[in-house]
Amino acid sequence: MKTKILAYLQLTRLPNVITAAADGLTGYLLIGGSLGDFSAWAPIVAASASIYAGGVALNDVLDAPADRIERPDRPIPSRSVSLRSAWIVSVCSLTLGIAFAALARSPRTVAVAASLVLTVVLYNSFFKKTILGPEAMGTCRGLNLLMGMSAASLSGGRICWFTAAAFGLYVTGITWISRSEVSARDNRGIIAGSLIENLAFVGIFLAIMSSRDFPNTTGDRPIVPIVGLLALLLEAMWVNLHSGEAIREPTPEKVQAAVRTGVLSLVGINFALAASVRGVAPALAVAFCWILARIAARTMKVT
Question: Which residues contact 206 (CB under 8 A, 6 or more apart)?
Answer without folding.
Answer: 162, 166
